[in-house]
Amino acid sequence: MRRRCGSRLLLCIMLLLLPMQILFAVEVITHAGSATQLQGNTNLRSIFSMRTRYWPNGEKIRVFVLPDDNEIHKTFVKQKLDMFPHQLRRTWDRMTYTGTGQPPITVHSIAEMLEKIKTTKNSIGYIDRRVEDENIHFFDAQ
Amino acid sequence: MKIFTSLMLNKFFYVLFFLTFSLCAQAVDSELNLTETSWQQGLQKVWRDDIQFHGFLSQGLFSTTGNNIYGNSKNSVSAGLTEIGLNVSYQALNNLSFAVQGLYRRAGQRTGDWGEVSLDFAFVDLNFLNFRDGRMGVRGGRVKNPWGLYNETRDVAFTHPTISLPLTYFDRSRTLFLSMDGGQFYADYNTAIGVFSFKFNYGFIQADDPELLQSIVLDPNIPGHLESKSSFITHLSYETVDRDFMFAFSYADVRLTYIEHGGFDPYAGLEGEIDALMFSGQYNGERFSFTGEYSLHWNRMRGLMQDNSPVSEMWYVQAGYRVLDNLQIMLRYDSYVQNKYDKKGESFHANTGLPAHLMFTQDIVVGVRWDITPAWMLRAEYQRVHGASAVSLLDNPNIMDLALNWNVYALQLAFRF
């Protein structure tokens, strides 16, 4: 009886976790105008580490991120960059406090992220859902 | 020369500010023409995109037994370490940028109760070569020195693991590696196996520091001051593709000369040259981190009563574990000997009569760090210290009273934006 309860509990937990995983499938987005700048070998890790600073056409990449402790940010860093948020933060801090580079611009909500990507040329960011908007290009829709 | 250098820097600072704001105005104009947005939107866009302001602030509380750190902490509580920094960076063109940082620092007797304001860095960055996998450029002005893993951001609490830096970065000689008035050549290269970065700084350090001078001569009554001669510091680092591992090699050649004061100065003619190297390695995983650094300093002092050319050896190993994403515990073993051929200071004591423990320090640090939010951090640590080679002689003027075994309890609150 106890074992059945246990396995049911496990099933319930798995069922609860499953939609969370789907919810947190992060999508990398860019301003629609930058769609042509994306290439098969576009290195997201290098872009978000602020090492690759220009699109192939020479325009400066405008990088937007959510705060370090935001769950979508954490998932994005792990899933899409195969890194950890604290590694990214270390790279940004070194640039910021030695004057050798500028960190990405932090936005505080998905709504703000969408607004920034829609209205900022050469921008890149990420969200946790798919939206229909002619000014937004989904990175994986190559 | 010293006055000339500081005047030049002041001028440079003003020119940089004017240049920054005039270029900013131009950028605003061009932005408006291009997008035909309202003036406010144009300003806001340029403001957010091309000019950034950042800063940090930290306040420490210290209580010690045996010796003082950052003021009067012995059997008491000292709030003697305050660090506030504010910087502005401006990306004027794709390959031209400017950056300035001012630093307010209050660190015990060294800076006095009112602290000191200094120009931490101020430079023009010309990124003359940009290609898909890397870049090269030069920076001119006052640039931070890349020395080991933590020196460039040594005053930014968030960027180093514990309240007190490892002994190899000891405060008494902070000016030795702090920053360079001159220039930097840099190159970054992204390869399939990781990222290589190279920096070469050439110029003059801020050598006029009584703390540094006293640690060389061990005489609080020395009348003159130190001045820098041309020096260089270079740094090569490699980070693996996944950023889990980082290795670095640093090398420095710093040269100093003593400027005598008054008619008869027994230290006239004192010259110093410090050649130093450091090997750094770090693993920085999801939960665990391990760091180790080893450095040697070949100190050559000419013109002292007795020839003083010790080889100093410093190393530490450190482990960290993230209990939660925002809660980390740290453990470090740290060693610093002033002369690796006199590790226990016995010859030093026999020759000078001064305490042998002025020549070594070993300590163990246990700490916990809590990142309350991305902007606020609180941490606490305990240090068990054996030796006194790294204590400030300004905070502990009575050399004969220095304790051999002592404890440090510390608390720090930090903010950044």
Structural class estimated from helices and strands of chain A: alpha/beta
Q: Distance between the terminal alpha carbons of chain B, to the nearest Å?
A: 37 Å
The H-and-E topology of chain B, N to C, reads as: HHEEEEEHEEHEEEEEEHEEE
CATH superfamily of chain A: Periplasmic binding protein-like II
Strand count of chain B: 16
In the CATH hierarchy, what is the class of chain B? Mainly Beta
Oligomer class = heterodimer
CATH superfamily of chain B: Porin
Form type of chain A? globular
Order of helices and strands of chain A: HEHEHHEHEE
- Overall geometry of chain B comes to globular
Which regions of chain A have little confidence, pLDDT < 50, spanning 5+ residues?
Answer: none
Corresponding CATH architecture of chain B: Beta Barrel
Mean pLDDT of chain B: 87
Give a structural overview.
- The complex is a heterodimer of chains A (142) and B (417).
- Chain A has one domain (24-138): 3-Layer(aba) Sandwich (D-Maltodextrin-Binding Protein, domain 2), CATH 3.40.190.
- The model of chain A has no long low-confidence stretch (mean pLDDT 85).
- Chain A contains five helices and five strands.
- With 142 residues, chain A is α/β, with parallel strands linked by helices.
- In chain A, 42% of the residues lie in helices and 13% in strands.
- Chain B is α+β, with helices and mostly antiparallel strands and 417 residues long.
- Chain B has one domain (53-416): Porin (Beta Barrel), CATH 2.40.160.
- Chain B has five helices and 16 strands.
- Chain B is globular, with a radius of gyration of 23 Å.
- The two termini of chain B are 37 Å apart.
